[in-house]
Amino acid sequence: MPALSICKSQPLLLLPLYVIIFLAALTIPDGWSSLNADSRVNDTVIAYISSSTSNHEIRLINPDGTQDRSLWRVPSTTHPADGIGTLSWHPNATKLLFDSGHDWQRSLMIRDLYTLSADGQTLRRITNPPGPENYARHQTGTVTFILNAFEQGDVQL
């Protein structure tokens, strides 16, 4: 118990330790960012989700505030709750990762993860693929079934 009484009587002795722990925590790199803006890649451009468009637009801006520009938008009919969630730069700065519910009609998960190239030209859904543009590559055929309905009422499939 003497160590406890020393800490109680001289709390300033631990202050340098707390400062070191705090500074170390600031320098620990995290994985994918959970923020709505990410500028960790070379400090050359900041990607953010525009709040003025109801979470429907990813924008880029230089760290000095110049060249604010649109990179990609979800369809205008998308409900704000189904817009873009969070985003983060890929470590090699060639694409962004983000989640969105803009295509919820074709998703079992309601929201999916997407990558978007840094130039905004290539959007790729990485959860629940493939998209309708790739359906032609899959086998087609027919399904036959027999339904014996003995109850009155509507039958729904």
Describe what is shown at a glance.
The chain has 157 residues and is α+β, with helices and mostly antiparallel strands.
What does this entry look like structurally?
By secondary structure, the protein is α+β, with helices and mostly antiparallel strands. It has a domain at 31-135: Neuraminidase, CATH 2.120.10. Helix content is 13%, strand content 24%. It has two helices and eight strands. The radius of gyration is 26 Å and the shape is elongated. The model is unreliable at 1-7 and 26-36 (pLDDT under 50).
SSE arrangement:
Blueprint: H1 2-9, H2 15-27, E1 37-38, E2 46-49, E3 57-61, E4 69-73, E5 84-89, E6 95-100, E7 112-117, E8 123-125
Antiparallel strand pairs: 1-2, 2-3, 3-4, 5-6, 6-7, 7-8
Q: What are its keywords?
A:
single chain; 157 residues; alpha+beta; Neuraminidase; four-stranded antiparallel beta sheet; 8 strands; disordered N terminus
DSSP E strands, number: 8
For this structure, the CATH topology of the domain at 31-135 is Neuraminidase
The residue fraction in helices comes out at 10-25%
Largest sheet geometry: 4 strands, antiparallel
Question: Could you name the ranges where pLDDT drops below 50 across 5 or more consecutive residues?
Answer: 1-7, 26-36
* Shape-level CATH architecture of the domain at 31-135: 6 Propeller
| Secondary-structure content class | alpha+beta
Question: Roughly how many Å is the radius of gyration?
Answer: 26 Å
Overall outline: elongated
- Which strands sit side by side, in order, in the main sheet? 1-2-3-4
Q: What is the H-and-E element order?
A: HHEEEEEEEE
CATH homolog superfamily of the domain at 31-135: TolB, C-terminal domain
The average pLDDT score comes to 70
Number of helices: 2
Q: Report the β-strand fraction as a percent range.
A: 15-25%
CATH class wording of the domain at 31-135: Mainly Beta
Q: How far from one another are the termini?
A: 73 Å
